[in-house]
């Protein structure tokens, strides 16, 4: 079956990601469609394949397609037999989601990949408790996903019957069998801790369960010359303004896209960041350079932004974080920057450069909106002076024979007579052919 792609077509296919089978949803860029996938807690984005994907689960595919149909998205199933284990999906997914009742053989089609009724009830209570505690949408999505993975692993086992020792066995399974990272284990522990302590009211239930030591990941930053190339590579004024605002104030991508026109205080030269991570409001400095860029961008807009500073295709709605990340990725490629770094690297670069200019780490903590000073202190380890001002022992070793150009003359280094363990071998004892062909110093 040949699929003709249009702006609202979504093509389903079976893909393999990290050795596991998934259902892929290939679609063109659309704000409404992306919002559905972003709000869906079991949907993930693949950077390598540039497509959304979900677990091979008929029920999940059916519920997701129902949401997509509400915005008139056309869902097409690629060739028949794509899912041979699920005969009910052979015609089209459109027919499947149009039915109100689901045949019993759908659940048997993918064993172990569906929720029993009692698990679904627990999931609903878990979601409700998260909402009532006032957790952010991203936290709710993360916790739900981790809890779903846990329920799928225990299958028909009642989670209320598990003891701390049995949970240790499960976490060992996550480490050894699934080979999850320490950060993922911490995330799963937090989700389970919330369920047992907040939903089931079992206080101190996790006291006997140790937490793995986290890998200290240092932030990746761009140098000033790389930043100049990055900004110069962008010709679109809107895209340039997005990158300028992010770097100049050290904002997160979500904070940039959610800036409103009313958040710009020209009189006090400030930007107001509303309800950022941790539900914190804060003010950051508005650079005169950035203000000039924003004025040029605003004058070039047609139609003018009505509510948000950077609006998407629909008037009055912000651009998606995915769009801003794509802007950064394309600019990085055009600038010839080969570092593996994301949009968040602009925030890391801002903090590191501020430290290098002598700004106190306590002020940077307030600017970035960190709760803990230890989070900000990570940037102390990536300051340029931290490494440049330290002298390697090899520099003192070769300080005497330095030439006028500042480089050691390795060709004239000779070993002391009779010393076979010297760091530089005696060239006079080597054959002339070896000197010409195999000399690593050349």
Structure description:
- The protein is α+β, with helices and mostly antiparallel strands.
- The chain folds into three domains: 9-109, no CATH class; 117-199, Tyrosine recombinase, N-terminal domain (DNA polymerase, domain 1, Orthogonal Bundle), CATH 1.10.150.130; 224-385, hpI Integrase, Chain A.
- Helix content is 43%, strand content 9%.
- The protein contains 19 helices and eight strands.
- The chain has helices at residues 31-39, 58-69, 93-97, 105-109, 117-132, 137-154, 164-176, 182-199, 224-232, 237-249, 253-257, 288-300, 321-334, 344-356, 361-368, 373-376, 384-388, 393-397, 432-437, and strands spanning 9-17, 20-27, 44-46, 51-55, 74-77, 264-265, 270-273, 282-285.
- The strands form two sheets. The protein has a five-stranded mixed beta sheet, with helices on one face. It has a three-stranded antiparallel beta sheet with strand order 6-7-8.
- α5 runs antiparallel to α6 (137-154), α6 (137-154) crosses α8 and α10 (237-249) packs antiparallel against α12.
- The longest helix has 18 residues, at 137-154.
- It starts with 8 loop residues before the first strand and ends in a 5-residue tail after the last helix.
- Residues 1-7, 82-114 and 419-442 have low confidence and may be disordered.
Summary of the model, kept short:
With 442 residues, the protein is of the alpha+beta class.
Fourth-tier CATH superfamily name of the largest domain: Intergrase catalytic core
CATH architecture of the largest domain: Orthogonal Bundle
Strand content: 5-15%
Let me know the average pLDDT.
77
How far apart lie the N and C ends? 61 Å
CATH top level of the largest domain is: Mainly Alpha
Shape: globular
Spatial strand sequence of the major β-sheet = 3-4-2-1-5
What is CATH's topology name of the largest domain?
hpI Integrase, Chain A
CA radius of gyration is 28 Å
Order of helices and strands, N to C? EEHEEHEHHHHHHHHHEEEHHHHHHHH
Q: Specify the number of helices.
A: 19
Number of strands: 8
Percent range of helical residues? 40-55%
Derived structural class = alpha+beta
- What characterizes the major β-sheet? 5 strands, mixed
Poorly predicted spans: 1-7, 82-114, 419-442
> How many domains, as an integer?
3
């Amino acid at each position: 079956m040949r699929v003709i792609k249009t702006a609202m077509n979504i093509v389903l296919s079976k893909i393999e990601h990290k050795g596991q089978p998934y259902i892929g949803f290939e679609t063109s860029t659309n704000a409404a469609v992306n919002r559905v996938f972003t709000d869906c807690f079991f949907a993930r984005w693949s950077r390598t394949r540039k497509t959304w994907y979900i677990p091979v689960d008929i029920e999940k595919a059916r519920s997701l397609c129902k949401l997509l149909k509400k915005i008139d998205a056309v869902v097409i199933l690629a060739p028949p037999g794509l899912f041979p284990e699920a005969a009910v999906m052979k015609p089209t997914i459109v027919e499947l989601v149009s039915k109100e009742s689901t045949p019993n053989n759908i659940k048997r089609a993918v064993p172990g990949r569906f929720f029993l009724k009692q698990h679904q009830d627990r999931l609903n209570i878990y979601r409700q408790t998260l909402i009532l505690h006032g957790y952010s949408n991203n936290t709710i999505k993360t916790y739900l996903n981790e809890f779903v993975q846990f329920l799928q692993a225990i299958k028909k086992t009642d989670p209320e019957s598990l003891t701390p020792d049995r949970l240790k066995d499960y976490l060992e399974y996550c480490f050894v069998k699934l080979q999850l990272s320490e950060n993922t284990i911490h995330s799963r522990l937090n989700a389970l801790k919330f369920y047992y302590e907040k939903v089931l009211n079992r206080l101190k239930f996790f006291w006997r369960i140790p937490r793995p030591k986290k890998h200290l990941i240092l932030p990746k930053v761009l140098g000033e010359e790389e930043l100049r190339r990055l900004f110069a590579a962008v010709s679109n004024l809107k895209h340039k303004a997005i990158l300028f605002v992010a770097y100049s104030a050290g904002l997160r991508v979500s904070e940039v896209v959610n800036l409103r026109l009313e958040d710009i205080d020209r009189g006090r030269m400030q930007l107001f960041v509303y309800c950022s991570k941790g539900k914190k409001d804060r003010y950051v400095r508005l650079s005169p350079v950035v203000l000039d860029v924003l004025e040029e961008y605003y004058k070039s807009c047609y139609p003018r932004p009505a509510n948000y500073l950077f609006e998407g295709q629909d008037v009055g709605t912000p651009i998606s974080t995915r769009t801003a990340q794509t802007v950064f990725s394309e600019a990085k490629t055009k600038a010839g920057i080969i570092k593996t770094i994301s949009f968040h690297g602009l925030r890391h670069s801002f903090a590191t450069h501020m430290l290098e200019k002598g700004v106190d780490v306590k002020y940077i903590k307030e600017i970035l909106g960190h709760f803990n000073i230890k989070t900000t202190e990570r940037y102390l380890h990536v300051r340029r002076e931290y490494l440049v001002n330290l002298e390697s022992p090899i520099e003192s070793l070769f300080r005497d024979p330095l030439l006028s150009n500042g480089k050691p003359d390795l060709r004239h280094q000779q070993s002391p007579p009779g010393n076979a363990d010297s760091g530089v071998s005696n060239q006079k004892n080597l054959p002339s052919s070896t000197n010409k062909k195999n000399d690593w110093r050349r």
